[in-house]
Amino acid sequence: MNNLRLTDPAIAHLIKQEEGRIAATINLIASENYPSQAVSEAQASCLTSKYAEGYPGKRYYAGCQIVDQVEQLAIDRCKKMFDAQHANVQPHAGCQANLAVYYALLKPGDILMGMSLSAGGHLTHGHHVNVSGSYYTSIQYGVDPHTELLDYDAIEHMAHEHKPKIIVVGASAYSRIIDYERMATIAHTIGAYLVADIAHIAGLIAAKLHPNPFPHADIVTSTTHKTLRGPRGGIIMCKAELADVIDRAIIPGTQGGPFMHTIAAKAVAFHEALQPEFITYQKQVIANAKAMAQEFINLGYRIVSGGTDNHLFVLDLRNKGISGRDAELLLQENGITVSRSCIPFDPAKPWITSGIRIGTPAMTTRGMTTEKAIEIVHIINDLMVKQPIDKASIKHLTI
Predict the structure, then answer these.
(1) Quick check: 71 and 55 in contact, CB under 8 A?
(2) At a CB cut-off of 8 Å and minimum separation 6, what does 354 contact?
(3) Phi/psi at 337 (nearest 5 deg)?
(4) pLDDT of residue 399
(5) Staple 265 to which of 43, 183, 383, 396, CB 3.0 to 4.6 Å?
(6) Could you give the percent of the chain with pLDDT greater than 70?
(7) Structural contact between residues 397 and 321, judged by C-beta atoms closer than 8 angstroms
(8) DSSP helix/strand/coil, 292
(9) What is the DSSP letter of 139?
(10) What predicted TM-score, i.e. pTM, was given to this entire model?
(11) Amino acid 393: pLDDT
(12) CB 256 within 8 A of CB 185
């Protein structure tokens, strides 16, 4: 960072501060992770300078011979990871991936059906404040009020009643296995497309530790920076017959020049995800989440849906007398980062919430095992019940 310190010492200083914050913090934000040095090197490469509108072999700029090979590697590796017939690695983020899919298959006013944000879904699945819920007619499904699991019978009834053109399945705060085959049957019975958003669980699927949406889903979208441990970005995969309409929805439909440096970093991350070590890592991610959830239950906390099958869970804090927002601030002050989260049918306002979402990808990347995960649970509990903690315990766990 010598050049940066000389050119812009203010930004260099802030980056240094952020490095310090990361090093001194236990990160339990389910949507965050740390890429490898190899991924970071690719993202910081000279490829950031290359304009490459179009696709490999068919660009609108000259000088793309090398970046064509980079993108093709990313495409081939992505298809291999998920058994996909076609992959587009150009979306700048998961939101752009989802919106491009809607742009490809819907007209304004068409019916889109997705999981509600309050039940664990995502803004881009039809929430009214998002373009997905304002340009399209949004129908939102939730979870069973007793089990807090996806109620496939209720979803099927809703689908037959409203006849959406797209059904989106996927979540930001749902901790259980998703039945893609059942969702595909529901969608295809009414002539709808099934779009699976696997942004959170993509790494688990790549490691064959969660069911793959293919061959059931028509289209699969994802981010690349959560459990996949890649750069911040998005991808779209689909069945072969939808390849052309999806590609045209990205360029020229919703994006211009792709970020070739990020695509290179995606390719590196996909390569890493195809290695045996990645499976070991993802197994530990799940083991840590299960261990933490069970220990919280042992300490008298309620876990939404009663536990977890993946990398995250939502902690209901109502019986502890603290809101999700206050818990988030309290933990942040003590070196632990989480994100506040609504619980299903939450009585609290969305900005406040009754829960916090806890995820294990980032802490696992830093080498923490189930033993350390349980230590973290007890530190969080001590803070919740206003017991003083030894700050050295936080420092010990972050090393």
Answers:
(1) yes
(2) 316, 317, 318, 323, 324, 342, 343, 346, 347, 348
(3) -105, 125
(4) 60
(5) 43
(6) 99
(7) no
(8) helix
(9) E
(10) 0.96
(11) 73
(12) no
Cβ burial of 275 (10 Å; 0-12, 13-18, 19+) is: exposed
**CB of 365 closer than 8 Å to CB of 26:** no
Cβ-contact 378, 371 below 8 angstroms: no
Q: Tell me how far apart the 2 most distant CA atoms of the chain are, in Å.
A: 64
Does residue 120 sit in helix, strand or coil? coil
| Contacting residues for 332 by C-beta, under 8 A, at least 6 apart | none
User: Do 228 and 261 contact (CB within 8 A), yes or no?
Assistant: no
- Phi then psi dihedrals of residue 262, to 5 deg: -70, -35
Active site residues: 51, 53, 197, 223, 226, 232
Token reading at 322: 């603290």
Residue closest to 309 by CA, chosen among 204, 229, 182: 204
DSSP 8-33: -HHHHHHHHHHHHHHHT-EE--TT--
Cα distance from N-terminal residue to C-terminal residue, the chain: 23
Residue 137, H or E segment:
strand 137-141
**236 φ, ψ (degrees, to nearest 5):** -130, 135
Cα separation, 339 vs 205, in Å, equals: 23
Q: What's the token pair of residue 65?
A: 């011979």
In sequence order, the β-bridge partners of residue 219 are: 195, 238
How far is the C-alpha of 152 from the C-alpha of 169, rounded, in Å?
11
* Residue 209 one-letter amino acid: L
Cα gap 47→395, rounded to integer Å: 37
37: Cβ contacts below 8 Å, ≥ 6 apart: none
d(Cα 168, Cα 310) in Å, to the nearest integer?
19
Q: Which tokens belong to 318?
A: 């109502």
pLDDT at position 301 is: 97
What's the distance, CA 378 to chain centroid? 27
Rounded distance, CA 91 to CA 254, Å?
Answer: 9
Q: In which residue are the tokens 């095992």 written?
A: 369
Report the amino acid identity of residue 288. N
Closest C-alpha among 53, 89, 102, 73 to residue 245:
102
Rounded Cα gap, residues 70 and 77, in angstroms: 11
- The 10 Å Cβ neighbour count of residue 72 is 15
In whole angstroms, give the CA distance from residue 154 to residue 164.
15
Nearest of 279, 234, 214, 230 to residue 101 by alpha carbon: 234
